[in-house]
Amino acid sequence: MTTTDTHGTPRSGSAAQHHVSLAETATAHNYQPLPVVLASGEGAWVTDVDGRRYLDCLAGYSALNFGHAHPRLTAAAQEQLSRLTLTSRAFHNDRLGPFCRDLAELAGMDLVLPMNTGAEAVETAIKVARKWGYERKGVAPDRATVIVADGNFHGRTTTIVSFSSDPVARDGFGPFTPGFRTVPYGDSAALEAAVDENTVAVLLEPIQGEAGVLIPPPGYLQAVRDVCTRENVLFIADEIQSGLGRTGTTFACDADGVTPDVYVLGKALGGGIVPVSAVVSRHDVLDVIRPGSHGSTFGGNPLAAAVGHAVVELLRSGEYQARAAALGERLRGRLDGLIGRGAVAVRSRGLWAGIDLDPALMTGREACLRLLDRGVLAKDTHGSTIRLAPPLTIEADQLDWMCNQLSGVLTQEGN
Q1: Residues forming a β-bridge with 115
Q2: What sign does the CA torsion over 79, 84, 86, 89 have?
Q3: Which end of the chain has fewer surrounding CB within 10 Å, N or C?
Q4: What is the pLDDT of residue 6?
Q5: Is there a contact between 136 and 293 (Cβ–Cβ < 8 Å)?
Q6: Dihedral, CA atoms, 230, 233, 235, 238, nearest 10 degrees?
Q7: How confident is the model at residue 3 (pLDDT cuts 50, 70, 90)?
Q8: Quick one: average pLDDT of 127-144?
Q9: Which residue, among 287, 272, 299, has the nearest Cα to 389 in the 3D structure?
Q10: Other CB atoms closer than 10 Å to residue 360's CB: what's the count?
Q11: Among candidates 391, 378, 244, 397, which has minimal Cα distance to 334?
Q12: Mind listing the pLDDT tens digit for each residue in 268-282?
């Protein structure tokens, strides 16, 4: 039995109501979470404090690509917890080298610069690009520019929101960091026109996640690669959400046969256990970073490296990439059937989908609240869009059940 009133208000006196009230009182309001209080998880399922189970179809914005409490990942974390968790980079540890070696190999690169959060990795990539521009390309001091795409989401630090086009993320946080030039996403001609002698990098999401799982037109990423090669500019692919199996390939760029100069990774790299991020590139790019020029107390710590290494090991066989590709085809078939039945557009790649709802029917948040009542966790964005990103470990029948619940919400069946 549900422990909420209609569409998600916790029932008075329930354990959920207690925890929601406490969080609202003691926590800064930088999020507006759905009114569910989760207490445990296994695989694709989570359980709330009142004992109700939900199918997790957000998966921590892809941080939980391998589901909750994956046995190989939790074993790696537990084993390392009993040995050594932190040294700082003032000393070597026995887990960092193997992790970086195998992650670089997975990406077809030479070096890894480990950090913690995705935003830290993006900041790191920007610093690397600027340093590379001054030392290797010969850009005049303090003149380096980075081209970014409209609608981007790379994090919420002051530098990153400086080139955000989202007023909620940006307003009230100026003055903003200079050095960025914004072009329309998917428009390679506009990108090429924006390049000049001070351009050091193009920073793009191969698929824009926060914007609603926006997939660029065919040939776009190859055109970006060609422009960057021709103009001696670094192509930085932010694969924090799209990478590590989510889209049916190891990296989203793989589907277009494109290799960037720099990968920015995070989320799934920590297995949903610890924050792990990384900038992965070649010697000629990352060698511009020298002792003292960049660092992090927790970046590359033994616990993070042990979990990250276990994630890389899971991806070596290609099993999870293949699952995402096969189940993604099944998901797309089901979602396409909702167009004209409450949905006006669907975009998907692998186990990642954005569904634009008819705004006259309901908002994205209202749809997510109705899904919550049906035992499905999803997330809205930009008013009338919802995103689905279930763990890559989800089973076909669970995926079908999720789609049945979404269909029921949009067609008002059983509401």
Answers
A1: 277
A2: negative
A3: N
A4: 52
A5: no
A6: -160
A7: very low
A8: 98
A9: 272
A10: 7
A11: 397
A12: 999 999 999 999 999
Residues composing the chain: 415
Closest CA to 239 of 254, 223, 218, 217: 254
Identify the pLDDT of residue 13. 72
Find residue 111's DSSP bridge partners. 281
Residue positions annotated with a catalytic role: 153, 238, 267
pLDDT mean across residues, the chain: 96
Q: What's the chain's Rg over C-alpha atoms?
A: 22
Q: Kindly state the average pLDDT of the residues 26-40.
A: 96
For residue 226, give the nearest of 190, 258, 197, 182 by alpha carbon. Answer: 258
Residue with tokens 């549900």: 2
Q: What is the pLDDT of residues 273-310, one digit of tens each?
A: 999 999 999 999 999 999 999 999 999 999 999 999 99
Residue 168 pLDDT > 60, yes or no? Answer: yes
| Contact in structure between 270 and 303 (CB atoms under 8 Å) | no
What digits encode the pLDDT tens for the residues 59-79?
A: 999 999 999 999 999 999 999
Q: Which pair of structure tokens corresponds to residue 352? A: 């990642």
Per residue, what are the HEC states of the chain? CCCECCCCCECCCCHHHHHHHHHHHHCCCCCCCCCCCEEEEEECEEEECCCCEEEECCHHHHCCCCCECCHHHHHHHHHHHCCCCCCCCCCCCCCHHHHHHHHHHHHCCCEEEEECCHHHHHHHHHHHHHHHHHHHHCCCCCCCEEEEECCCCCCCCHHHHCCCCCHHHHCCCCCCCCCEEEECCCCHHHHHHHCCCCEEEEEECCCECCCCCECCCCCHHHHHHHHHHHHCCEEEEECCCCCCCCCCCCCHHHHHCCCCCEEEECHHHHCCCCCCEEEEECHHHHCCCCCCCCCCCCCCCHHHHHHHHHHHHHHHCCHHHHHHHHHHHHHHHHHHCCECCCEEEEEECCCCEEEEECCCCCCHHHHHHHHHHCCEECEEECCCEEEECCCCCCCHHHHHHHHHHHHHHHHCCCC
pLDDT at 8: 58
Which residue has tokens 């494109």? 258
CB of 190 within 8 A of CB of 134? no
Contacts of 128 (CB under 8 A, 6+ apart): 113, 262, 279, 281, 285, 286, 288, 289, 294
Integer Cα distance of 35 and 17 in angstroms: 8
Residue 176 amino acid letter: F
Residue 10: which pLDDT band, with cuts at 50, 70 and 90?
A: confident
